[in-house]
Design goal:
Length: 354
């Protein structure tokens, strides 16, 4: 456990409200247009935590622990309060206004009775703030810390069933979104993230990825034109990595990828992750997830739509990898190409039959 007592930053010479900050830092690029995420190092955390928490009027925090993925999440203790300070990397992949959209969605879900963490506004009422780090400005958001334990990965079938129940519960509570609200990902497009289209830069995999994107986009167009219900605001990344086992239930975290879409799309995102683990060890997590979901509400995903939505997710993640250019990119592209090749072959055969 990393424990660092953060000193209180000096008082400004002219105290007053912090001016509004942009919700996302501008992406930065390195040679050849390759964009890389940059997360703060442990040595930088005391300064960042102190500077950020001052925007919430909090001082003298202890850093209890740090978790890194796309974001860096710092577990801080201030007095007897346990909070999560989420520090986004300099590379923004979400639409402007995503932090405010996340706060609004969490407030709605909490009002509907869902157990979700809440966003703590800054002293000037903003959902997030930016602070200067050693490599540039980073965006910080303060949320409730969810006590509990991480779900093991790969998840157990029991965890997958609980994840299905949670997914269905969130779908029941999700607000409808007839028009595109600002700040959320747009489920009408295969490439939902707010980043450039880099599929053509995937080398030998480029033709496969482009063909998969075209086929999946046609299926998405059909889904959106024929859906019997209006779209909803969904989690957008409900996987075992984004839930916490708290007591006898799973609590969702990290709604940063909030998606305007249909429940089928949200379910497919979860299944892509669980199916990868099932393929590795012959497990039955996908079946358990469906059983858990159906214990709460009817299963939304039909066999004819499922392969297209799974392909859309793989193409989306491949493109994101090409934008971020993190280590392991070649393996990342190989993984998604293997998943997409049978889909493209089937889609091509179906098109020829028509």
């Amino acid at each position: 456990m990393l424990v660092v007592t953060t000193p209180a930053p000096p008082e400004p010479s002219h105290p007053g409200p912090t001016p509004p900050e942009p919700s996302q830092p501008a992406p930065t690029t390195s040679g050849g247009g390759a964009t890389r995420t940059q997360c703060p190092r442990d040595a930088d955390l005391p300064h960042l935590v102190a500077a950020a928490l001052a925007r919430w009027g909090l001082r003298g925090a202890d850093v209890v622990g740090v978790r890194r993925s796309y974001n860096t999440v710092v577990h801080v203790e201030v007095g007897h309060r346990h909070l999560a300070l989420r520090v986004a990397p300099r590379v923004g992949v979400h639409a402007p206004g995503s932090d405010e959209a996340e706060r609004t969605l969490l407030d709605h879900l909490a009002a509907a009775g869902a157990a979700v963490p809440r966003v703590h506004p800054t002293i000037d009422g903003a959902a997030s703030t930016t602070v200067d780090g050693p490599h540039g400005r980073v965006t910080c958001m303060l949320l409730d810390w969810v006590p509990g334990s991480e779900v093991p990965r790969p998840a157990t079938p029991g965890d997958a069933a609980d994840l299905g129940r949670l997914s269905a519960t969130l779908h029941d509570a999700a607000p409808t979104a007839p028009g595109p609200p600002s700040g959320v990902l747009d489920g009408r497009r295969v490439l939902t993230f707010h980043v450039p289209d880099r599929l053509g830069e995937a080398g030998d995999h480029a033709p496969l990825l482009l063909a998969a994107r075209a086929s999946a986009q046609r299926a998405l167009d059909d889904l959106w034109s024929s859906a019997p219900e209006p779209p909803r605001l969904l989690h957008g990344d409900l996987t075992p990595a984004n839930v916490v086992r708290s007591g006898d239930r799973l609590v969702p975290i990290d709604f940063q990828d909030a998606l305007r879409g249909h429940p089928e799309q949200d379910v497919a995102i979860t299944l892509v992750r669980l199916a990868r683990d099932d393929a590795a060890d012959g497990g039955e997590r996908c079946a358990a997830f469906r059983a858990g979901y159906e214990a709460v509400r009817p299963w939304p995903l039909t066999p004819d739509v499922a392969p297209h939505l799974a392909a859309a997710r793989s193409v989306q993640l491949a493109n994101l990898g090409l934008v971020l250019r993190n280590p392991g990119l070649a393996e990342h592209l190989d993984l998604h190409a293997r998943a997409l090749r049978p889909y493209v072959e089937r889609s091509g055969a179906a098109a020829a039959d028509r």
